[in-house]
Amino acid sequence: MSFPHLLEPLDLGFTQLKNRVLMGSMHTGLEEEKGGFEKLAAFYKERAQGGVGLIVTGGISPNLRGRLAPNACQLSFPWQIKKHTIVTKAVHEAGGKICMQLLHAGRYGYHPFTLAPSKIKSPITPFTPSAMSSRQVANTIKDYGASAALAKKAGYDGVEVMGSEGYLINQFISSRTNKRTDKWGGAFENRAQFPVQIVKQIREKVGTDFIIVFRLSMLDLVDNGSTWNEVVQLAKSLEAAGVTIINTGIGWHEARVPTISTSVPRGAFAWVTEKLKQEMSIPLIATNRINTPEIAESIIASGQADMVSMARPFLADPDFVNKAEANTPELINTCIGCNQACLDHTFAMKRATCLVNPRACYETELNFTPAKINKRIAVMGAGPAGMAFAIYAASRGHQVVLFEAKSEVGGQFNLARKIPGKEEFDETIRYFLNQIKLHDIELRLNTKLDASVASAEKFDEIVMSAGVIPRPLDLPGFDNPKVVDYQKVLTGEVQVGKKVALIGAGGIGFDMAHYLCEAESTTLNPDKWLKQWGIDKDYQTAGGLTEPVAEDKNREVFLLQRKTTKMGKGLGKTTGWIHRSVLKQHHVAMRTGVSYQKFDEQGLHIIVDNKPEVLEVDNVVLCAGQVSNTELVEEMKATGIPVHLIGGVDVAAELDAKRAIRQGAELAIAL
């Protein structure tokens, strides 16, 4: 399959983009590290070499009080230009173009000096902002222009003005957060003047031969958000003010609707960009959950947008565009939208990277150079850890034989991909399989590695990545066939009834509850998904919200945990709330502080708050964690061949593909 629309150049008049792909803005954490701009330059350089048409950096504040955090970046003074030049020079040498994103956090700032249109605290940050004075509003507009001028001096090809996601500009636009009574508040025409004046100021400072992208919130997904007429009116005013391209923004960060997680259908919001495109004459960019060249091509070919924005897909694979151009999309390491190593890291103030590509943001540190001595290496277990090691080790010149006792590769990913909303895990298995072929790795399915084989074939190293097995619970009646582990349910070995109790409320328990409750994955049915989350595709309400449509109850499920802490406390910071919301939609009964007694013909006997209770369930599913599959470890060590443990066989904590794949990569470099 070729991708002619995706790869077609875009003429902006004063400059031309080589294709219709924008690498969207994302904060990496390198911006604040010592020597971080050198690392950032290497990161962006690889993406420019990979063929992306235009790169947008993470958010840079135009002034001190607009910073996202106390140590976050701003560009306000000439002496700050030097470090930015490192980045722009690297991108230009690689044949790319790059814009700097201008982002004022407003009330989303994580520091006590935040400013906003009005003194209204955000529900997702700890500090109450000060209301901006008229002078501060005027000075902030000037600061945007001054920062853009400095960006031009630093070699950037343009700027992106962050006017969405609930940051300062969005806060001015919306009556939800703008309660001012001066000329910057009240009627929409007044509230819209703030972004319009910012764009005019920037255009005045940078001239005509400079790209201005405006990230416009086209769908706020919060109460009292913008109406559709207001979105159109503002877009036209921004075009008249000098914007080159309008990028799509979807949802405020405080919105209770998922917008980028893996459970969001691919291209789920392209319809809103298409709706605005009919009103505009400048190029528009579609965004959110576009992660393959096929979906990107279809969006542009169908006229929904002129470009597509992809951020995390370029963490997963810097060569995304080159592979599409070479007509080898099967070789793309696809972003699965998990957020575990990117956004979850960002919110924890750690460097972002990627679960499926641990080298992302570590381009100067994690490199697979040719091995000095080529070795013959046996790998036991073709789960994420084993496959990752095999591929990286083979890329260094080692001869790798990959043993898998089952009939297919994937390990725990084969279970994860059966959960509604986690269908993207298929893509990682597809990528690994193609890399195994590409690197001539010998794959032996239905074959268990044992000590005799290891010795007879004279392996130099043995890598054990045979994963985990479910943790059993030794309680009265738990040997009953109606008490089963999660793996047997997901593989279809066991069918459960209409009333089910799940023991263990970690990631496995939440996934199992979702699996049992959702007969058909709404991720694969975009219109049904929009209704499930109350998104008004007709846009009849401000913010684009409507009443969610609940799915019929498929099963009665009890999710139980021993701990008294909040249910799902250990889930990902950016996705945990989504998992909890889904289970509430399906009316899952969630109980904490549960003591398990026994299982008999009556059901599961438990004690909660010192009160005995019997749950009359058809089945009990054990989701109480797992233990390392250490079978054969000592036997392998007895061969005298060096043995290395990675993945679940090393640490059997909550299933962690991020750690497993990274371990595989780091061991491949070490051997």
Describe the structure.
InterPro entries: Aldolase_TIM (IPR013785), FAD/NAD-bd_sf (IPR036188), FAD/NAD-binding_dom (IPR023753), NADH:flavin_oxidoreductase (IPR051793), OxRdtase_FMN_N (IPR001155). With 671 residues, the chain is an alpha/beta fold. It contains 22 helices and 27 strands. The strands form 7 sheets. The chain has an 8-stranded parallel beta barrel, surrounded by 7 helices. Strand 10 (245-250), helix 8 (270-277) and strand 11 (284-286) form a beta-alpha-beta unit. The protein is globular, with a radius of gyration of 26 Å. The mean pLDDT is 94.
Low-confidence stretches: none
User: Looking at the structure, what is the overall shape?
Assistant: globular
Give the strand order, joined by hyphens, for the main sheet.
3-4-5-8-9-10-11-12
Distance between the termini: 38 Å
CATH-defined fold name of the largest domain: TIM Barrel
Radius of gyration: 26 Å
CATH architecture tag of the largest domain: Alpha-Beta Barrel
Strand percent estimate: 15-25%
What CATH first level of the largest domain would be assigned? Alpha Beta
Count the DSSP helices: 22
